[in-house]
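User: Just a sanity check before I run the rest of the batch. Below are the structure tokens for the first item. I only need the designed sequence back.
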């Protein structure tokens, strides 16, 4: 059984990450298709630190996601979506996580690695995650995304596996 997990698609981050509005729209469409097939949608929300005070407007999950009442929202305080959160409990009947969100090189990466260590298979949505450029390393956001798609799909993971697939191929009838 699958679940769509959306990582940190929060109002403050959408305008900052590469192609943020387009990413939010793509994830919203993916979530609609997932729900149509009876797949649970879980949205993670980063809380804490100066940028994500619980009641700050930018902390809210993006309106563009079109989340619904039946979707599960889980607050987290670390890059790893499983760390001291209710995520593992929410995914009790799930064996495969379809993973999307931001940031590619932070919370998406940490959550993917943690998921496979817990025995989940992960489908990383190739065009379903984003980040910001890293000028210090000389990398564009596109390069970071491509690199993480390659690294996560080729790494040896205990417990589960990571495959990378484009959004258009997922939750089709």
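Assistant: Here's the designed sequence for the first item:
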């Amino acid at each position: 059984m699958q679940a769509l997990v959306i990582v940190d698609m929060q109002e403050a981050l959408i305008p900052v990450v590469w192609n943020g509005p387009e990413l939010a729209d793509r994830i919203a469409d993916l979530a609609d298709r997932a729900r149509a097939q009876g797949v649970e949608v879980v949205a993670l929300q980063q809380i804490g630190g100066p940028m994500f005070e619980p009641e700050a407007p930018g902390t809210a999950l993006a309106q563009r996601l079109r989340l619904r009442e039946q979707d599960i929202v889980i607050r987290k305080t670390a890059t790893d979506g499983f760390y001291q959160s209710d995520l593992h409990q929410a995914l009790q009947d799930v064996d495969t996580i379809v993973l999307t969100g931001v940031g590619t090189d932070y919370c998406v990466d940490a959550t993917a690695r943690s998921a496979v260590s817990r025995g989940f298979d992960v489908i990383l949505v190739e065009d379903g995650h984003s980040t910001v450029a890293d000028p210090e390393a000389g990398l564009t956001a596109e390069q970071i995304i491509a690199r993480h798609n390659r690294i996560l799909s080729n790494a040896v993971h205990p417990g589960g596996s990571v495959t990378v697939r484009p959004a258009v191929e997922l939750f089709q009838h």
